[in-house]
Amino acid sequence: MKENFTSQNRLIIFGLVFSTLLIMAIALFSIFNIQKNLNTSYQNFGQVISKTLAIETSDLVKKSKDNTSQILKSHSDLILKSHKDIIFIEFRDNQGKIIYKAKNSSNETSSITVSSPMENFGSVTIGLSGAIIDKVSSTTRASILFVFVIVWLVFAFVILINTYLITRELKILHNGVKRISSGEFGYKIEAKEVSEEVLSLFKAFNDMSARLRIYEEANVEEITLERNKLEAVLMSIANGVVVCDNNDIVTLINEHAKEMLELQDNQLLDMNIKNYVDSDGNFCFSEKIDEYKKLSLEEKSKKPVIFNISLDDKTLKAIISPMFTRNHSYIGYIIVLIDITRETEMDIMKSHFISNVSHELRTPVTVLRTYIDTLYDMGQDFDYNEQKEFIGTLHTEIVRLQNMVNDILDFSRLDSNAKIEKSENDISQLVDYCVSEVQPLLKEHNLKIKTDKEDNIPLINCNYDSIARALTNYLSNAIKYAPQDSSINVKLYKEPEKNQIVVTVRDEGIGIPPEYHKKVFERFYRVENKTHSVKGTGLGLHLVKTTIEKHHHGHVFVNSVPEHGSTFGFTLPIVDEDDDELV
Fold it and tell me: Distance between CA 153 and CA 156 in Å, rounded?
């Protein structure tokens, strides 16, 4: 529409210039003709004057007896005074000699010279200044120019008025088209004082606008529904989803992505994804997006770009994939974010577990081989007590090795869907059995165990060996971390309101910071890696949690304050609702 206005303005300017030039040409041509006619008329006027002067002078000379020169002088002076347009009068005889010449007092030069013969005398010549013709010509030119200027102004005014009316109508139509293009379907143009052709155009526009309105009402609900479905699907995906156009501008982002990227509201929406930085100011996506955009469309489709992002204490896996329309036109890309923090931590813990187990296995195997080789080579040189000491050490290391193997086997069995058998057991007797089992370890560390058991503890439907290993694990950990000459408290009581019994083991060790309370029961996790060098596989507490919660519907817990000891415990329901559960 803007181009149409420009073309129309050019036509208007061209019309005005052309009309101006045409009127100027007509005016100049008219002035030229008028000037020519005036010169001819003035020439005739001079001829008339000269003939009249010749006749009058001849008559005066015939009638007068005075001197001829005196007559010519007096008559010439009279003529010069009465006709200011005459510059000079000149009389000549029949031979062409000047008899008398008179000239007015002005310094003007004659523009026209006219001669007429005199009867029986010669000729008379007059010179005309042309002042009259100049005045007449100037007045005529001014009048003609004025008339033509008036005509041109009227013509230009008519063109401008017509142009204004046409432009106004086009502007009305342009405004209507603009409002339709902005989505205001149904907009109507009010036709007031317009030509029939424009009125027909306005009616066609209003009809089109009304049809678009009907189409919009018929389809907007369906389009909105489809868009809402798409947004609902993206928002409900468990992973984070970031949709970007071909200019890297974020057009859609679901709530999970906002949580993973620690965004508030629509913080990243309509912004360039490459500008996103972590808390340290590092660009997280820029380099990989540039790498992705260098790939061909076929490479993008076959092999998405995959990379990891580290944000504070989280690790995110990002997958960049192309996005196409139904017509297979490339319109941007989608970034899928997967929180792999747990998997990353598990990989690290597995590495630590393998390292710990390797070290733990190497120590008893090395001791066993060394002592066995010594007994094999030099056993006859040892007395009974020395041999007994060697055999005792071998027994201790074999038990240690057996316990580690049992932990690994229990971990494999309890994390599977194996079925365990349960029966009614006396937990009070089980506590006494576990305490007696750890007595040798108590003597090594010079520790004491205090047992506090309530009376009338009911029988519990459980797997005796599993619960015994769980409690023994608690006791072993307490012995490892309790300081020398301290006490370990074991408590057994029931909670009737919750229909459960509770077993706790308290030590006076270094304690556990609150942020690790939930993590200590995870497999492979060992707080000691961060605080001290007590050895272990990192499976013990996880096996306790699996045994109690997964197999017996109980609950494990820990209460600990750094430097004030720790209390580990578990609960067991007095009535087990499912004796034949699968693990």
Answer: 5
